[in-house]
């Protein structure tokens, strides 16, 4: 398995992976919702606001993690939001996701990102350093339907900071149905 950064030339493979994975796990409506989110992220997010990482095996994308800028205008921290992430159904529970996120977080840290946040299963993400955070500690851009899934971590070798003020996400994520 190879883990590499980059999105260019992989757009359709990423959309297909996410759509298929979320359809298998959550049903066709969720698969279409998250697949359309990825399509929108890839087509409309400025390159300086998006980072993508892929796990590939024999030329096939078997895992993907997309990070986009989460802006706190009143706070100096550089923050990126992981959303979405997917691992092909036949490769889940084999360490692909953990390896993918470990590599991605290392790369983000190397480029000066100070905080990573996601909205997902705390039990899965705990394995790569995410921990529950409160909405007061880091205000989400839109109301959360499952506040227990709001998790984050410092990538700067310090405790998770309290991020000041409201936040804004990239346009593709500015949709209440994904929060």
Task: Describe the overall structure.
The structure is a single chain. The chain is an alpha+beta fold and 179 residues long. It is 29% helix and 24% strand. The protein has helices at residues 11-26, 28-44, 96-110, 122-125, and strands at residues 2-5, 50-57, 60-69, 79-87, 115-119, 131-132, 150-154. It has a 7-stranded mixed β-sheet with strand order 1-2-3-4-5-7-6. Helix 1 (11-26) packs antiparallel against helix 2 (28-44). The chain is globular, with a radius of gyration of 15 Å. The mean pLDDT is 96.
Please give the structural blueprint.
Blueprint: E1 2-5, H1 11-26, H2 28-44, E2 50-57, E3 60-69, E4 79-87, H3 96-110, E5 115-119, H4 122-125, E6 131-132, E7 150-154
Parallel strand pairs: 4-5
Antiparallel strand pairs: 1-2, 2-3, 3-4, 5-7, 6-7
What attributes does this structure have?
24% strand; 179 residues; 7-stranded mixed β-sheet; globular; alpha+beta
Shape: globular
Number of helices: 4
| Terminal Cα span | 32 Å
Helix content: 25-40%
Which structural class do you get from the secondary structure elements?
alpha+beta
Alpha carbon gyration radius: 15 Å
Number of strands: 7
Mean pLDDT score: 96
Ranges where pLDDT stays below 50 over 5 or more residues in a row are: none
Question: Numbering strands along the chain, what is their spatial order in the largest sheet?
Answer: 1-2-3-4-5-7-6
Question: What amount of the residues lies in strands?
Answer: 15-25%
SSE run: EHHEEEHEHEE
User: What can be said about the biggest beta sheet?
Assistant: 7 strands, mixed
């Amino acid at each position: 398995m190879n883990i590499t950064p980059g999105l260019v030339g992989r757009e359709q493979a990423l959309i297909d992976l996410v759509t298929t994975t979320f359809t298998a796990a959550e049903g066709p409506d969720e698969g279409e919702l998250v697949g359309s989110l990825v399509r929108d992220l890839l087509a409309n997010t400025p390159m300086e606001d998006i980072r993508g990482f892929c796990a590939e095996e024999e030329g096939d994308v078997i895992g993907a993690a997309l990070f986009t800028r989460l802006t706190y205008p009143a706070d100096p921290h550089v923050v990126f939001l992981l959303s979405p992430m997917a691992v092909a159904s036949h490769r889940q529970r084999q360490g692909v996701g953990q390896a993918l996120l470990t590599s991605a977080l290392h790369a983000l840290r190397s480029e000066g990102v100070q905080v990573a946040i996601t909205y997902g299963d705390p039990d899965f993400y705990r394995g790569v350093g995410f921990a529950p955070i409160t909405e007061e500690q880091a205000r989400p851009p839109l109301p959360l339907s499952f506040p227990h899934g709001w998790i984050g971590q410092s990538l700067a070798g310090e405790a998770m900071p309290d991020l000041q003020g409201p936040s804004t996400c990239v346009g593709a994520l500015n949709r209440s149905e994904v929060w």
